Amino acid sequence: MRHAKRGRKLGTDASHTQAMLRSLAAALFEHERIKTTETRAKEMRTLVDRIITWGKEGDVHARRLALAEIKDRALVHKIFDDIAPRYAEREGGYTRILKLGPRKGDAAPMVIIELVE
Questions:
Q1: Over the stretch 22-42, which tens digit does the pLDDT of each residue have?
Q2: I need a labelling partner for 65 at 20 to 30 A (CA). Which of 46, 52, 81, 97 fits?
């Protein structure tokens, strides 16, 4: 049973879902724009917003929390030094989802998720 478990299951078990969302978030921070399915993008938004908020705090504890999620020191430096300062005046909503339509193979709704400028 999944009592008191939040978030979408995404067709996998919890550890695979967590790993997939971390990987998607790392790709978004690296490229600043990625193409994925709508449900994955909506679920990834919360993780990305939380990491950017940690980047805005900028202290050692926030860096360690971000490093625990992303697992790439260079990318965490990019988040804290380049990406997070862009959103110093913004309270939240750091991502934008643009719908593309159904995927050809299985008709899954595809989107582009990007960081807001």
A1: 999 999 999 999 999 999 999
A2: 97
Report the CATH number at residue 43: 3.90.1030.10
Between β-strands 109-115 and 33-37, what pairing exists: parallel, antiparallel or unpaired? antiparallel
Tell me, what DSSP letter sits at residue 88?
T
* Reported confidence tier of residue 8, pLDDT bands at 50, 70, 90: confident
69: containing domain: 14-115
Q: Domain for residue 21, yes or no?
A: yes
The answer to whether residue 8 is domain-embedded is no
